[in-house]
Structures are given as structure tokens and as C-alpha cells.
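Lab manual, section 2.4: Encoding a predicted structure.

Procedure: take the sequence of the chain (242 residues), apply the prediction step described in section 2.3, and record the output as C-alpha cells. A sample record is shown.
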Amino acid sequence: MTTTEAPRYVKIFNVLSRRLEAGKYRVGMRLPTESELCEEFKASRFTVRESLRRLVDQGMVQRRQGAGSVVVSATPQARYVHTLSSLGDLFQFALDTDYELLSSKQVTIAADIALGVGGEAGEKWWQLKGLRRNEKGGKPFSYLISYVAPRAGVYVPELEHVVGPFYAHLAQRTAEEILGAEQDLHGAPMTAEIAGQLQVKAGTVGMCALRRYISKNGTLIASYNWHVAENFHYRMKMARDV
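Recorded output:
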């Protein structure tokens, strides 16, 4: 099993989170300045800012003009913020979070699923179900139902031990370069299964991000990523055409 060292900003974020939870920085207090944190961790200002941004995304810190970074909670709040600007962001996201594979089996996909994932009704795809958490043992923030194209099914057993995104492993094993990812977002009441995995009541409104990873041969893997709608915030970066 391959291990990947966490990025520097994640390590700093983890240290600061533990200090908040231990009460070193109490609610209402200001964190050390960016310059002080850069000096302490021997890190660049960019790295420190990214660590602080993650604390803000977790609902533990607020950035206030003239006051710096102020502690507003000692523990992470039930929020999910995902910033997306490239496939690299998706790759890093998979490294920064913990994924637990719950089940995998071959299924015959119905017309609605075929339309979503980019297959044909009646085809046999591999269905994987899993949970994603900010850290191992934490509360899940996403329930994933993924579908692997039939041509890549032989590699599904390997995914249980993969570190990083499934699409990257499957692309490497099939020698199919991922040309791009498509994403559709929609909201809907969650089924009892989805709600149960996310520890909320059935019928709670959820937000689903359907991602399809596409090679020259079509969809290689597609995932329905379910979140509790009130805890979901999606951020996408766009650059002006030049």
C-alpha cells in the first residue's frame, strides 16, 4: 500500500486545529499573525494563508479586517467547502481527506443511471459505495455512489488499497488519459440509505455533485457525491478570457 505525505499547509492546519480543540486559542482570541505563523512553521505566507483558509472553511476561525484571524469555535462545524479549478484540485482533495470503501459489486444499470454516468441501459458496471471524512474516524460529510465502466472492472479490487483518487488509478491501469471531468449539481430529498449514512433524517434535502471522468473511450468512472444541503458550499474559480 502506497503512502503519500500530507502537504505542508495540511500539517499546519492540523497543528492549529489541535491547538483550538485543546483550548490554547480560546473562542474570541486572535490567532498569531501570518508573519508569526510563517516564522514558527518556517513556511511561506501562501502556505500559512492556505492553512488559515481551511480553518475558516471548517467554521473555526473568521478573518476580520483589522482584527486578523479570530477564533469562533473550538471544534469543526458541520460544513463542507470545496474549491475547484482543475483536475489537480480534485486529486489534492482526495489526498487531503479520508475515504472509506463500504461495498463494491457489479450491477446492471438502469436508464436513469446510464444517462447520468454516460453508459447504456442494461450494461454491467461496477458500483462502489463509500464515505468521505475530513479525517479518519471523523463524521462523514459525503456519501459516494460510484460507477466504474465495464472495461475497467478488472481493476476494481485494487481500489480498496488506493491512496488518492480512483480516477487517477484507473487511468493509469487502463492506460487511458483523463481528458476532462464533467460535473452536474442538483438538490433533492435524500433517500433513507443516503440520509442514514450521513446521520440525518430521511427526506433531508441533499446536494449531489455528479462527476464524470472522461477519456477518449468515454466515461471511465462517475461518482454521485451526496452532501447535506445546508452544510454544502461549492466554490469554483474562473479566470477571465484573454
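Check your result against the sample. The chain has two domains: 8-71, 80-236.
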